[in-house]
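### Sample
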Amino acid sequence: MQSSTYTVKANAAFAFQRRTFSNLHNRSATTTVSSFTPLHLHCSASKAMGAKLARAENGIQTVMNLSSVKARSVRAQASSGGGDEEEAVPLRSESNSSGTVLPFVAVACLGAILFGYHLGVVNGALEYLAKDLGIADNTVLQGWIVSALLAGATVGSFTGGTLADKFGRTRTFQLDAIPLAIGAFLCATAQSVQTMIVGRLLAGIGIGISSAIVPLYISEISPTEIRGALGSVNQLFICIGILAALIAGLPLAANPLWWRTMFGVAVIPSVLLAIGMGFSPESPRWLVQQGKVSEAEKAIKTLYGKEKVVELVRDLSTSGQGASEPEAGWFDLFSSRYWKVVA
């Protein structure tokens, strides 16, 4: 009886149990045995479920251990593989060394300051210099004094690029300082309208050349990561020059002869420009184009440091070889291909 009860399935055992409980007068050993049968099966199921949970827990723990081991191995490889960290060092050092070009950019910006100063200096001084030169009622001569600067700037802007390609950037700056200084001196010491116009014309040639070579030089010596920012410095210092000219005219109301000092002050930055360019490195790009590789290496070492010499000389040489194009003349601008764009 007991053996047959133990072999009964769970559902049958539960049914048998309900029948035995309904018959209160027929309690027997069979009921006792059958009532224990579901508990036995329940215990077996619980043990099986516990075993499954234990196996699942062990699997999860194994996955977590493998993930932890993998993470530790990745960190170990990252800490032991110092190559990546060493490759990032030149980027940080390059951004730090980019500050070494700033003094040379500042020297070049003297040309931009003079550009703005000569444009703005005549605004406040025109009335007083016209009285001093005896042309207070002659608006035509006053117009010549004002416009002579722009006429000279037109000529200088057409010649600046040619001079820079022929003599180099720094040498062109030094040549440019000559008309700038002489023009300012003639304007400050002028005793006639003709001298004043000549002085303004020379100053105009100087600022025309500056308008071409200042942004050219700055762009060629600036590191790539700050080239865009330094490219806008030229316009900024032109505005600073105009502002300086307006401030310089404040004493005119109390001293009518102050206009001569206003023009004469421009000699100082002209001389500083010539002296500063004597100590500034030449454009490495221009030196490579001229085949002066050794001088280009010295310029790169001064601008960026010796660790960049080999890389930049190679890049400049490669770009120079790929950019070889035939020379174009002025008349090509008016050819059938370009004349609409030029117009």
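The CA atoms of residues 7 and 37 lie 9 Å apart. This sample (Major facilitator superfamily (MFS) profile domain-containing protein) is used throughout the tutorial notebook.
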